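[recover] target loaded
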């Protein structure tokens, strides 16, 4: 019998069971033998994990910041097959040390090279062969390389692969089939789908998902469908893609312990002037069912909640979305396409956010969808972001700090951008998944 998740209730029950035996607790840095300072960086002894590094300047501008350095590309794979006559996706119930909800659903494969090459001596990664070698009947639907957090990582990317199996696939323990018809409700639930699964949902074809239910005409869903089916405008795509740099910003790495704005103790590393708004702390983790079931690792612990906003309007019977193009220090491309507004966890509200909220108020902004989501639990400790989809009248253009960086796009254009390699930010990929929950 197939392990199938037929409802949100099923999904939540599975996650509650998955939490069994999971624990995480703070420890001192001196209690961990697997990590240490090495040549000015903080590294795992295998040299196959991520590093914490110091950055002294970005594009010749002095800074004193800490970034994660993991330039080898991580891998996310999503496997589709027909289950009981319906297209379904093989997802896994995962425990991650830093997840706010402890357990969430991830894609079929969610792994770094250190994990799937078993540098830590763990178990092999299930279903890897479906993505890394030929399998009879397999059909590649989507393949791209995507950007990660540009203000937390230096030049990290992820390979996203979506495969249609066209054969019977037996779920391993903690793996389940998610029917297409459940996705519209699942994307609107907080702390249910992790960022990697949301990223995969953003790049998959949306037509089959949107056609699983019908709530009539003159609804947001009907405007979304019409916008998705509308031809892409070459002029808009050309303007946006021309602003995405093909090279990264010059980043000067420095000795981590010489950063002026950071103080290091055995308990934690502290951001003295709250420039980045987080500390780094060491944890001991026990996670039954993972490739490695217990380990120690550092995690970033931000001091406040982040915020992502995607603004939309109805224009000529089409749903349109306000996108922003700007730079981030750690992006492999230097710049990318972002949602209408974002504030990282740990950052403080500023004048730009105040002007943005004033604009939403002036345009009778209406919150139509919102969730609370956990940042990637393998690197961040309960870092939380609010996701907001806001509908406005749209009679005025947004006069932000640099209004020339903002673009109103159709859903067809957003989908085109999402499927291009190294074009869209991970924040845009994650919040775009909420659009499938519009009614």
């Amino acid at each position: 019998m197939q392990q199938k998740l037929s409802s949100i209730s099923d999904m939540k029950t599975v996650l509650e069971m998955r939490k069994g035996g999971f624990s995480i607790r703070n420890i001192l840095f001196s209690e961990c033998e697997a990590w240490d300072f090495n040549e000015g960086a903080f590294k795992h002894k295998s040299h196959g994990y991520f590093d914490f590094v110091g950055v002294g300047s970005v594009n010749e501008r002095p800074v004193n910041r800490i970034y994660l350095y993991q330039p080898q590309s991580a891998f996310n794979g999503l496997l589709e097959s027909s289950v009981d006559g319906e297209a379904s996706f093989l997802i896994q119930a995962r425990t991650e040390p830093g997840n706010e909800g402890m357990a969430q659903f991830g894609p079929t494969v969610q792994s770094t090279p250190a994990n799937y090459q078993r540098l830590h001596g763990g178990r092999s990664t299930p279903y890897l062969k479906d993505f890394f070698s030929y399998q009879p009947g397999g059909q590649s639907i989507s393949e791209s390389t995507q950007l990660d957090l540009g203000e937390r990582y230096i030049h990290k990317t992820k390979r996203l692969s979506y495969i249609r199996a066209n054969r019977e696939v037996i779920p391993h323990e903690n793996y389940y089939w998610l029917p297409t018809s459940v996705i519209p409700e699942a994307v609107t639930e907080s702390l249910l789908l992790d960022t990697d699964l949301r990223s995969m949902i953003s790049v998959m074809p949306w037509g089959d998902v949107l056609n699983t239910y019908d709530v009539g005409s003159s609804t947001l869903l009907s405007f979304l469908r019409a916008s998705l089916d509308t031809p892409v405008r070459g002029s808009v795509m050309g303007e946006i893609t021309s602003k995405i740099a093909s090279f990264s910003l010059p980043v000067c790495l420095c000795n981590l312990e010489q950063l002026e704005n950071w103080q290091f103790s055995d308990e934690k590393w502290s951001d003295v002037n709250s420039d980045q708004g987080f500390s780094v702390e060491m944890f001991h983790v026990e996670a039954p069912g993972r490739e490695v079931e217990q380990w120690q690792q550092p995690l970033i612990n931000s001091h406040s909640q982040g915020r992502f906003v995607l603004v939309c309007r109805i224009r000529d019977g089409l749903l349109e979305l306000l996108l922003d193009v700007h730079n981030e220090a750690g992006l492999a491309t230097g710049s990318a396409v972002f949602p209408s507004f974002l504030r990282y966890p740990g950052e403080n509200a500023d004048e730009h956010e105040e002007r943005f909220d004033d604009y939403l108020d002036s345009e009778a902004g209406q919150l139509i969808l919102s969730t609370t989501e956990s940042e990637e639990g393998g690197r961040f400790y309960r870092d939380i972001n609010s996701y907001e989809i806001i509908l406005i009248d749209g009679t005025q253009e947004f006069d932000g700090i640099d209004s020339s960086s903002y673009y109103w796009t159709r859903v067809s254009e957003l989908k085109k951008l999402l499927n291009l390699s190294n074009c869209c930010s991970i924040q845009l990929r994650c919040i775009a998944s909420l659009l499938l929950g519009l009614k």
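[recover] notes: The mean pLDDT is 92.
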